[in-house]
Design brief:
Chain A: One of its GO terms (molecular function) is tryptophan synthase activity. Chain A: It catalyses: N-(5-phospho-beta-D-ribosyl)anthranilate = 1-(2-carboxyphenylamino)-1-deoxy-D-ribulose 5-phosphate; (1S,2R)-1-C-(indol-3-yl)glycerol 3-phosphate + L-serine = D-glyceraldehyde 3-phosphate + L-tryptophan + H2O. The complex is a heterodimer. Chain A is α/β, with parallel strands linked by helices. In chain A, the strands form six sheets. Chain A has an eight-stranded parallel barrel with strand order 1-2-3-4-5-6-7-8, surrounded by six helices. A six-stranded mixed beta sheet of chain A has the order 13-14-24-19-20-23, with helices on both faces. In chain A, helix 13 (329-341) packs parallel to helix 15 (358-366). Chain A starts with a strand and ends with a helix. Chain B has a single domain (13-264), classed as Alpha-Beta Barrel (TIM Barrel), CATH 3.20.20. Chain B has an eight-stranded parallel beta barrel with strand order 1-2-3-4-5-6-7-8, surrounded by six helices. In chain B, helix 2 crosses helix 4 (75-87) and helix 4 packs parallel to helix 6 (108-117). The radius of gyration of chain B is 17 Å and the shape is globular. Chain B starts with 6 loop residues before the first helix and ends with a helix. The chains are: A alpha/beta, B alpha/beta. The A-B interface holds A 220, 228-234, 236-238, 376-377, 382-383, 386, 389-390, 393-396, 489-495, 497, 500, 502, 504-508 and B 51-56, 58-59, 62, 66, 69, 74-76, 99-106, 126-132, 149-152, 154-156, 158, 162, 173, 175-178.
Chain lengths: 609, 265
């Protein structure tokens, strides 16, 4: 549910009119001495001249006023809610309720005993406003309090089954941060003003942001029920340290500048947006565009995240990077970044994968990385990840764990998503420049899900259909697949709660796909959430379907895609004809297929000779 | 009745708590080993649940888990096995040591129910840190089962809030990294354990890497007791064939008993 929005401190008929025209559900007036003070008679006149909307409620704010005056003014102004903003007693609040028949909200000023105070008004207050406590003013100062405390207030309000609004310094700029604490409502006054007047644009921006913003994860790293931090206590410290470091660079201009420079001058961004004309004609239907992440340095989107995390590691003063890898692509990206930034690098890789991906192992070693062979479990990506985490636990002081996908404990899924969002942001800009509109549908392949998350996230509030493609291997009706969302159950692996391929005892099942980058038994927690809330649709395609689509792209566009990417292309092959020519289908071409030539040759050898 | 919270365990000195894996090497053998540990005079037993991806464990316990799974080991089997061990006379307090995914797979309520039936006194889930444990903590409280918390040398400011909710005992992780034997330990550990003991309302047991008699003595002098896992699990693993043989199993169990008595002595 979207939080309640209360716009408070209307000083004039103009202010009031602006508030009525927004989607705010509460409109507040100050009856206490303040620069925003108004008279009950004015409010009554304004509401006669411009009736508020049916769902809107009028709120009057009083500070230590006598019960009689509160009752009298409330009735005169036609208030729905009386907000007792001072140190009104339980008896006074009860009397106002009786005298007016209106609802009474109690303001709690955030301090150590605030929660206890809130409990005292149980069954008496019809709602709460939590505001900043300042020495010489009863709130309304535009100063925020420590929002970490919000969940406790929300929990108490939920227990009492009443609303609880957060006030104090809320602005359009800090709203996104506030929403991570999931307030039940927000109360804004100075944050929607410019030059002492209510600013319509700020009001609109705020209601739009509240009503239309997909907000995840919350402050605990949860995407709905998914995500979280399921790691041993020995790692909690490292995750907290990482979270703090990430928050400090998230909006830091200097960091953004450095990263932008690396992405542009080292990796070659922005990557091209290619109109696949011949492929579109061949499939007959949608106009197909390709976002060319294959043109990145090292040949895939993985470098976007590796560069960003590498910079962050450096900033945190870490000297060693560790990474896990399945097919070797993320290992290569990590080794590349370590070389670029002058750090040492250990890549954990399952013995089985090392055997299958000989060339990438050589490539990583060439780049100066140490490849550590993992012999536990099934000796593949899942086991390499276990081993990397174990190594991290023991070497947390100087080691940065560079996770390659939107998986792992919080903050990794959020951080990797943010670092990969450059894919979607560029696409959005390029689409607008090229065709003057957004695509109708976007499709991306999903293993852990980092290219898909990076592509989807900037479009999440837009009217664009989003589709993720999992690997069905030899078919989801066989045991050999990696279709986590299609066939998995909720569970915890590698630090977060998501969907997992597992047996009835909760042991993880080894997945299968022809594509080494998609055979992961889990999936990023945000994908699990987006599936469950219906925002993204997920389908699975088989090895054979992917290989057929791979050949099409080679033959009609002269582009050899990675086998992972070919899964997204297989969906395009099957669905493009259902769309019309004026509809645009955008594909995230996550990587190039040079690394797969050997596999492709083995599969297609017979046909193509 | 929760035997961890009873005076006998709470007031004991130099507690010694071994870890063994259920169904390792087989269902029956692990029950007999549990009974043998009781004879050896241990103060409680950690009863491990095999899992495919034991993040906090080293190779010894992971391999024992793989072996146990081949022998049919699982969370359900661990509960069933302990119920049987109780019927055969096991009195010592028991802590179920399991990763969170098997618990989620069976369901919190069902696991608690099974624990009550098997008279298991506590549960320790290494990958369920404080922040994620609220729901289970509530259920454990209602069922009178201790939810054992881990505390690490790196816990720093988290130490106080974790120790405040300590139940049964607190498990102090004596070295960063995974379970497994160690040559040496950091000096800071003893300082950190002393700090923890000041705020803790339950005994503080030290574990992770403790494998020799000297290490046991050392940590018993600092903490309220020790936990030994990998060293014992390896010792058991080395006697797998003997434990499975009708003629030799008695001798193997005797050796296990002597091994533990030597550690305690």
């Amino acid at each position: 549910m979207n939080p309640i929005v209360k716009f408070c401190g209307m000083r004039s008929f103009e202010d009031y009119q602006k508030a009525v025209s927004t989607e705010a559900s509460m409109i507040g007036f100050i009856f206490a001495p303040s620069k925003r003070q108004v008279k009950a008679a004015d409010v009554s006149e304004w509401t006669r001249a411009k009736p508020y909307k049916a769902h809107q409620q009028l709120v009057g704010v009083f500070v230590n006023e006598s019960v009689d005056k509160m009752v009298q003014q409330s009735i005169e102004a036609g208030l729905h809610i009386v907000q007792c903003h001072g140190s009104e007693t339980i008896e006074e609040v009860t009397a106002v309720k009786k005298g007016t028949g209106a609802l009474v909200y109690k303001t709690i000023h955030h301090h150590e005993g605030a929660l206890e105070e809130m409990r005292q008004y149980r069954d008496i207050a019809d709602g709460f406003v939590v505001d900043t406590k300042t020495q010489d003013a009863w709130g309304g100062t535009g100063v925020t309090f420590d929002w970490q405390a919000i969940p406790k207030y929300t929990e108490e309000a939920n227990r009492q089954n009443v609303p609880c609004l957060i006030a104090g310094g809320v602005t359009v700029d800090n709203l996104a941060k506030l929403q991570r604490y999931r307030p039940l409502g927000i109360d804004v006054s100075s944050g929607i003003e410019s030059d002492e007047k209510k600013d319509e644009r700020k009001m609109m921006a705020m209601t739009k942001a509240v009503n239309n913003t997909y907000q995840a994860p919350d402050y605990l790293g949860r995407f709905g029920p998914f995500g979280g931090k399921y790691v041993p206590e020995t790692l909690m410290f490292a995750l907290e340290e990482l979270e703090k470091a990430y928050e400090s660079i998230r909006h830091d201009e200097e960091f953004a500048r450095q990263l932008h420079k690396e992405l542009k001058e080292y990796s070659g961004r922005p990557t091209a947006l290619t109109h696949a004309e011949r492929l579109s004609d061949h499939y007959g239907g949608a106009t197909i565009y390709l976002k060319r992440e294959d043109l990145n340095h090292t040949g895939a989107h993985k470098i976007n995240n590796a560069l960003a995390q590498g910079l962050l590691a450096k900033k945190m003063g870490k000297t060693q990077i560790i990474a896990e890898t399945g097919a070797g692509q993320h290992g290569v990206a990590s080794a590349t970044v370590a070389a670029r930034f002058g750090m040492s690098c250990k890549v954990f890789m399952g013995a089985e994968d090392i055997r299958r991906q000989e060339l990438n192992v050589f490539r990583m070693r060439l780049l100066g990385a140490e490849v550590i062979e993992v012999h536990s479990g099934g000796k593949t990506l899942k086991d390499a990840t276990n081993e990397a985490i174990r190594h991290w636990v023991a070497n947390v002081h100087d080691t940065f764990y560079l996770i390659g996908s939107v998986v792992g404990p919080h903050p990794y899924p959020m951080m990797v998503r943010d670092f990969q969002s450059i894919i979607g942001e560029e696409s959005k800009k390029q689409m607008n420049e090229r065709i003057g509109k957004l695509p109708d549908e976007i499709v991306a392949c999903v293993g852990g899900g980092s290219n898909a998350m990076g592509m989807f996230y900037p479009f999440i509030n837009d009217d664009v259909k989003l589709t993720g493609i999992e690997a069905a291997g030899k078919g989801t009706e066989t045991p050999e697949h990696a279709a986590t969302l299609t066939k998995g159950r909720k569970g915890v692996l590698h630090g977060s709660l998501s969907y997992l391929l597992q047996d009835e005892d909760g042991n993880i099942i080894e997945p299968y796909s022809i594509s080494a980058g998609l055979d992961y038994p889990g999936i990023g927690p945000e994908h699990a959430h987006l599936r469950d809330i219906g925002r993204v649709k997920y389908e699975a395609v088989t090895d054979d379907e992917a290989m057929a689509a791979l050949q099409d792209l080679c033959q009609f566009e002269g582009i050899l895609p990675a086998i992972e990417t070919a899964h997204a292309l297989a969906y395009v092959k099957q669905n493009a004809q259902r769309m019309s020519k004026d509809q645009v289908l955008l594909v995230c071409l996550s990587g190039r297929g040079d690394k797969d030539v050997h596999t492709i040759q083995q599969v297609l050898g017979g046909d193509n000779q | 009745m929760n035997k961890l919270t009873e005076e006998r365990f709470q007031k004991k000195e130099n507690r010694f708590v071994p870890y063994i894996m259920s169904c390792h090497p087989t269902y029956e053998a692990s029950i007999e080993i549990a009974l043998t540990l009781q004879e050896a005079g241990v103060d409680a037993i950690e009863w491990g649940v095999p899992f495919s991806d034991p993040l906090a464990d080293g190779p010894v316990i992971q391999q024992a888990g793989d072996r146990a799974r081949k022998a049919g080991g699982s969370l359900r089997k661990a509960l069933e096995g302990m119920k049987e061990a109780r019927q055969q006379g096991l009195q010592a307090p028991v802590v179920l040591f399991t990763y969170v995914n098997p618990v989620l797979s069976v369901g919190f309520e069902k696991v608690i129910e099974g624990m009550k039936e098997a008279e298991i006194d506590g549960i320790l889930i290494p990958d369920l840190p404080f922040e994620e444990s609220e729901e289970l903590r509530k259920l454990c409280n209602e069922a009178g089962i201790s939810l054992i918390s881990l505390i690490a040398p790196s816990s720093s400011h988290r130490m106080e809030k974790i120790s405040r909710l300590g139940d049964g005992f607190l498990y102090y992780v004596t070295s960063l990294g995974v379970t497994g034997t160690r040559q040496s330990f950091s000096d800071q550990i003893s300082h950190s354990i002393n700090e923890l003991k000041k705020t803790a309302t339950v005994p503080v047991l030290a574990g992770f890497g403790i494998s020799t008699r000297d290490q046991v003595r050392h940590f018993q002098s600092i903490a309220d007791g020790v936990i030994v896992g990998s060293a014992l699990v390896r010792f058991i693993g080395e006697r797998e064939q003997a434990l499975l043989s009708e003629n030799e199993s008695k001798e193997a169990l005797k050796e296990i008993k002597e091994f533990v008595q030597e550690l305690i002595s």
